[in-house]
Amino acid sequence: MSPVRPLHNFSAGPAILPAPVLERASAAVHELKSKGHSDGASGAGLSILEISHRGRDYTEINEQAIDLCHEVLGIPRTHQVMFLQGGASLQFAMVPMNLNRPNRVSCYVDTGVWAGKAIKESRVLGETRVLASAQETGFDHIPEIGEIPSDASYLHLTTNNTIYGTEYPEIPRVRDDIPLVVDASSHIGSRPLDFSRVALGYAGAQKNLGPSGVTLVFADKDLLKDTAATVSSVPHYLRYTTHAKTPGVYNTPNTFGVLVLKLVLEWLRDEGGIEAAATRNAEKSSKLYTLLDSSSLFDAHALPGHRSHMNIPWTLRAPTDAKPDAKPDALTVRFLSEAQAAGFSGLKGHRSVGGCRASIYNALPIASVNALVEFMREFERKA
Ligand SMILES: *Cc1c(COP(=O)(O)O)cnc(C)c1O
Q1: Hey, what domains does the chain have and what are their CATH numbers?
Q2: Which of 185, 261, 360 to mutate to test the pocket of ligand 1 (most atoms within 8 A of CB)?
Q3: Which atom of ligand 1 is nearest to the CA of 91?
Q4: What's the DSSP call for residue 144?
Q5: What distance in Å separates the CA atoms of residue 340 and residue 358, rounded to the nearest whole number?
Q6: The pTM is what?
Q7: Per-residue pLDDT tens for 201-237?
């Protein structure tokens, strides 16, 4: 007997995907529905896993996926869309490799674990300056950026902080002469974001766009032209210009992952697009924050005004005589195990914050949030 599927999937990533997407993806694993090209280049009758990335069928999938990134996610046509591998983590290194300039400094804002990893790679590759950090208060807010130095190569921001649950309310407008780079892994597609302000953006697909193993990267074509002159010491594979020339197919891509990303974007479009998703996500997050703010047991980690609409971490208020300890307290352990038994999956907080976290990406239905809120109310009543 197969195990019972949890009813409510709050995983931070890889994360919940829309049920119709899972159905279409599994059908494509059995047999790709193809238009049946007559020139022998068709994959009709074969699995998506079995066809060439240079054949007509995959070429079509790749082109449609790129087009949907523009149409549905609002990536301007001035920007080149690419599907790379190596996760968002490889972008931590590729960004400084490609965008560093001689006698200039790479600038970052430290908003938590992922920003910290990006900073760490930048330090390997060149002079790096952290313009602002929220570390002192446990990354519970988005710090003011302050003045951006005129000798900056670029400014890098993590626009939604998956672990601490903070989010930039909008993509900030920075100096026109300094490229803005964003890691938007965990909120791309969740609401309209003004990517015309962004010179280069990236997102691991496994949060809101599809499966792991695909990283969406988009870069202003003018910026790419500028980098062409300065990347001669970067291996070809790690240059954006290499991938921009043959978007998505410089080498064998994660063909299945790109297909699923395409199916997710079609689903998002058919559900009313990004504006409708934003409305649903605002309603979902506000239900959870309302509960957390009115509770005397649960504490939201992020401060009002800085809160993510996608990732919502909280802690359980320890009894006043409890000693601070890295290990989760007994009440948190009990909460998580009762939640698991009641069909809520993926609520354990990241080890660096502890407590709990609900990730409420696009594919998570509001019914799951309602059920969680009810479960938490009941838990508090009995605690
Ligand atoms: C998950 C995540 C990453 C890491 O992604 P990988 O694909 O595992 O490398 C980086 N940044 C943010 C904001 C994330 O949420």
Answers
A1: 23-270 (3.40.640.10), 273-382 (3.90.1150.10)
A2: 185
A3: 9
A4: P
A5: 13
A6: 0.95
A7: 999 999 999 999 999 999 999 999 999 888 999 999 9
